[in-house]
Write a structure and sequence with these properties.
Elements (H helix, E strand, L loop, with lengths): L1 H52 L7 H29 L3 E2 H34 L4 H4 L2 H19 L1 H9 L8 E2 L3 H4 L3 H35 L4 H37 L4 H27 L1 H33 L1
Antiparallel strand pairs: 1-2
Helix pairs in contact: 1-2, 1-10, 1-11, 2-3, 2-5, 2-10, 3-5, 3-8, 3-9, 8-9, 9-10, 10-11
Length: about 325
Amino acid sequence: MNCSSSSLKNVSYTPQIVDSVKFTTAFVNNLIVVLVWLSLTCINSSVIATFFKNRVFYENPRYILFIHMVINDAIQLTISVILFLLSYIVYTINVSLCCIFILLGIFTTRITPLSLASMALERYVAICKPLRHPQICTVRHTYILLGFIWFICVGTDICDIFVTMATESLSFFYSNVFCVRLNVFKDPILTYKRQVIDIIHFSCVFLTLAYTYLQIMFAARAASSEQKSAQRARNTILIHGGQLLLCMLSYISSSVEMLLLIIFPANAREIRMANYIVIFIFPRYLSPLIYGVRDKTFRKYLKSYFVCDQHKVGLRRVNHSRGQKINVF
């Protein structure tokens, strides 16, 4: 009788223990993601504030392209974090709202590789065609290039929403789904279109990075006086290539995740969490850290930004303490 009662107790408490473990795991995962997002947001905010507080960067195409990539990555990361949190909190959301999140995520994801290619081209012109650099890489041309990049990225994927509106009923847009691209844009034609665009997209970016790297390497060998700047430009383009590979991982992340789930079916949450951090969060750390800290000019102004902020905090504390003394007397 005692054995049966104890077994009944174990059976009755097991679901509660399992639910508690699931809640704890979900809470820890979400807390890690939010803390990482907050830390990266602080870094990005410091970099963006440094750019906009110093007019010396406004007239330099290199820094305009850099800050554009930082802002773009910040938007992309924020959208992915929102979707990650919603998948744990409410699991499903309205299709119309999901379409907005997915499209913004697609646009910003596509823009990152093109931003890398444009920064590589700017370095190529600066090293290989230094006399023509002031005429080619102007502020006006830079903003035209950024507008063209947005036009390409938005134009190639905005048609997904029109195809979905034509093929799905109106009630579909009032329903709730787990917010991933395949659950919203379900037409097989869109899948084939996406694969073709991805291949063309990354092939063009890869060829651009390879061409600019080789040209800069040849220029460095020919001109001994510019070897140091050419070496830095080559290293920069190599970093662009590394970032491009990390960007490409986001397009195979779902396949890798499914393969890992087949091998380790009991660790679904851990696999999903690790996949999200490695594929979506880690690459976004590279841009502000590598370019913001590596570049001497930007590093100097970034340091002065923090020094000025600390000086202002110190002055506020001194004024506050003086005010307290005056109030005492």
